[in-house]
């Protein structure tokens, strides 16, 4: 299946009232696990690469090209998305590499500066056919500097979308980035109010801290794109740790990364079934 745009995946899900799983890629094995999980569930998926992940690799292109190549050989719809970009240069590079979507994150700026910077990026990206997600109301916990109590105001969100022309909006509704426990307390009334006020799909960041039943409820109240990173790293790293602990003589990296990739794929499939309201024997309606 050819590489798909995040915009098309998200629009289809929003119409159907489903969620879209957007999972972060750091190593090649993440991309492979996320796609394998999507194929197990028969659901579309978003591979996202953050500015921090690009910085870790020293450049965006190597991990991006590997992810794009994996997406192109998938049997389900897969998009490749730039996550939490604060650099307009990185946004431009992603567009040039063939990303169909980016998240431009100017949420650390005050409202007027966020609006102006985002509107500029949207104009440039739209001219290149690229879909843009932005953020309003800091999603708590990122880099330890955002308050977990941050909330997005629905009227301000509607005005922000109208003024910038963004295609999707990340909102603060009670999640916090990088949680290791799944006990975040979501404000479902606020999600519903944002859904009613904002004409574009809503994005839930920091979803690692959200319990299974609250992921379902978040989608039912109006969330569409659901970003999960830390939870998958937890699954991945636990499998690596188990494999290394079980055999102190193990040195072949494939012997511990392989089980970690398989465990992560299982968890991606499980999460995608929750987000797409599928039971274990069903596949996604788009595949019938
Ligand atoms: O943009 C990515 C996410 O918001 C992931 O957050 O690591 O808390 O799941 P998380
Ligand atoms: Zn995020």
UniProtKB/TrEMBL annotation:
Any single GO BP term: carbohydrate metabolic process
Cofactor: Zn(2+)
Key words of the record: Metal-binding, Zinc
Alphabetized InterPro entries for the sequence: Aldolase_TIM (IPR013785), Class_II_FBP_aldolase (IPR050246), FBA_II (IPR000771)
Catalytic residues (UniProt): 83 (proton donor)
GO molecular function, one term: zinc ion binding
Matching Pfam families: F_bP_aldolase (PF01116)
Amino acids binding Zn(2+) 1: 84, 177, 205
Residues annotated as binding Zn(2+) 2: 105, 135
Cofactor note: Binds 2 Zn(2+) ions per subunit. One is catalytic and the other provides a structural contribution.
Highest taxon of the lineage: Bacteria
PANTHER family assigned to the protein according to its UniProt record, in alphabetical order: D-TAGATOSE-1,6-BISPHOSPHATE ALDOLASE, D-TAGATOSE-1,6-BISPHOSPHATE ALDOLASE SUBUNIT GATY-RELATED
Protein name, as recorded: Fructose-bisphosphate aldolase
Organism field: Streptacidiphilus pinicola
């Amino acid at each position: 299946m050819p590489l798909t745009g995040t915009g098309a995946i998200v629009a289809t899900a929003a119409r159907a009232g489903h969620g879209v799983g957007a999972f972060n890629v750091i190593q090649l094995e993440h991309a492979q696990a996320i796609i394998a999980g999507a194929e197990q569930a028969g659901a579309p998926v978003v591979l996202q690469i953050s500015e921090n992940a690009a910085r870790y690799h020293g450049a965006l292109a190597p991990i991006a090209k590997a992810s794009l190549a994996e997406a192109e050989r998938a049997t389900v719809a897969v998009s490749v998305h730039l996550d939490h970009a604060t650099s307009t240069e990185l946004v431009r590079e992603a567009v040039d590499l063939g990303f169909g979507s980016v998240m431009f994150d100017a949420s650390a700026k005050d409202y007027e500066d966020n609006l102006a910077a985002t509107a500029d990026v949207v104009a440039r990206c739209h001219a290149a056919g690229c879909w843009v997600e932005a953020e309003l109301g800091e999603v708590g916990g990122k880099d330890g500097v955002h308050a977990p109590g941050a909330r997005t105001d629905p009227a301000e969100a509607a005005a922000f979308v109208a003024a910038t022309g963004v295609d999707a909006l990340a909102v603060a509704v009670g999640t916090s980035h990088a949680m290791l426990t799944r006990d975040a307390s979501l404000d479902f009334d606020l999600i519903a109010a944002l859904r009613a006020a904002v004409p574009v799909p809503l994005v839930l960041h920091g979803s690692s801290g959200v319990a299974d039943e609250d992921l379902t409820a978040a989608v039912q109240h109006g969330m569409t794109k659901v970003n999960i990173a830390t939870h998958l790293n937890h699954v991945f790293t636990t499998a690596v740790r188990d494999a290394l602990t079980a055999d102190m003589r193990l040195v072949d990296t494939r012997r511990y990364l392989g089980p970690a990739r398989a465990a992560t794929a299982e968890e991606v499939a499980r999460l995608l079934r929750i987000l797409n309201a599928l039971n274990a024997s069903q596949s996604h309606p788009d595949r019938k």
